[in-house]
Each structure stands twice: as C-alpha cells, then as structure tokens.
Design brief:
Elements lengths: L4 H40 L4 H15 L3 H11 L9 H26 L3 H9 L4 H31 L11 H12 L3 H28 L4
C-alpha cells in the first residue's frame, strides 16, 4: 500500500482532536496520581497498624493488577452499583489510581532520603509536626523526586491507548475510526505512533535536563 499524503491531511484534524483528549487524560491523571500517591505515603507512616495495613493492602492490590482490568472494572462493573462516570473521567480515575501506587513509593524514597539531621533540627526548634512536614521535609523530598515523577508522566502518556477499551476518543480510537472508514490503517496508525515519539522523546530529554539541574545525580 502506497503512502498517501492527501489522505493524511484529510484525517489529521480528527487525530489532533484525539491528541487533545490524550494530553488531557495524561495531565489530569498525573495530578490525581501525584496527589493520591502523597496521601498513600503519609498514611504508610501513621503509627497505627490498623491504618497502615489496609492502605498497604489496597496499594498492593492496585499495583499487582493490570491497568486494563482496572479500567474495565471502573467502566463496566461500577455502573451496576449505580456509580458511573463518563469514559474520559473513568480513564482519568483509572490512570491516576493505578499510577498513584507507584508515585507513593517515589515519595517514600524521597522522604527517607531527607537527612536525619533535618528531622532532629526541627525537633530541637520545637516545630509542630505539621510545620516540620510542610516547611522542612516535603520541600526537600519533592526536589529529589521530581525527575522520577516526570518519568511516570511519560509512562502514563504511553499507557493512554488503553483508554480505547472504554470508548475514550483518544488518538488510537480516532485512528481506528479513520482506518475503519477507508480500510486504510497505514497512515493513521503511523501518524499516531510518530506523535507519541515526537511528544515523549523531547519530554524525556527535558526530564534528564531537570535531573541534572536539581543535582539528583
């Protein structure tokens, strides 16, 4: 099958619409993953095992089950319990929940990397526990984990094609519909693949630059 540029220009607006949805799912999913991951990490440090153990069980369950299965559960099973969301919202929740279990470990590593002397200094100054976390520990921990979090954003971006399974009109879904209309899949699928590379590769280079700037190596 020969490559047809005129065909590419015809379907590009549709693919770009899908790109907007893909980026939206990535950004919103990342924000949810970052926030929820920090919540998991803080709950892991609660003294009571009656809090830590259930949280650990939930995190391990989510981490050890495939993202696609989780998306199917959210989209097809929850409505039977009268809990339903739009495909995009379901996708964002699925991505954010899944990746929060990984960002939780990133936060944990960042917090444990804060020198013990910082904790001792805060104690010597009689800083309230909340102030110690907000003003002393978390700023130092976050500086260390920003590059790792950025890598998870790229990973999430590359996982967005899974949202096709729950009818989200992302790039892959749009490419599939374009191909189904004309029975030409070469151009739309190739364009989608190239768009992933064009976005993911420069982003990974920026993360490496950020890594060096923050002195994480």
């Amino acid at each position: 099958m020969d490559w047809d540029w005129s065909y590419v220009w015809d379907f590009m607006p549709q693919i770009l619409d899908g790109l907007v949805v893909t980026l939206k799912a990535t950004v919103l999913g990342s924000l949810l993953a970052f926030g929820l991951g920090l919540v998991w990490t803080l709950l892991f440090r609660v003294p009571s095992r009656w809090v830590r153990w259930p949280v650990r069980a939930v995190v391990e369950f989510v981490r050890d089950t495939p993202l696609l299965v989780q998306l199917f559960f959210l989209f097809y099973v929850l409505p039977t319990l009268d809990i339903s969301f739009s495909p995009l919202v379901t996708g964002v929740i699925g991505l954010g929940l899944h990746y929060s279990t990984y960002t939780a470990e990133v936060y944990r590593a960042g917090i444990e990397a804060v020198p013990r002397g910082q904790w001792e200094a805060a104690t010597a100054l009689s800083l309230p526990r909340t102030h110690t976390w907000v003003a002393v520990v978390l700023p130092q921990a976050l500086r260390r984990v920003v590059p790792a979090l950025g890598n998870y954003v790229i990973a999430m971006f590359k996982d967005t094609p899974l949202l096709y399974a729950i009818a989200v009109l992302d790039m892959l879904k749009q490419a599939q519909e374009v191909g189904a209309e004309s029975f030409r899949y070469l151009e739309p699928m190739t364009v989608v693949g190239l768009l992933f590379v064009v976005i993911a590769y420069p982003t990974s280079l920026l993360i490496r630059l950020l890594e060096r700037r923050l002195g994480t190596h």
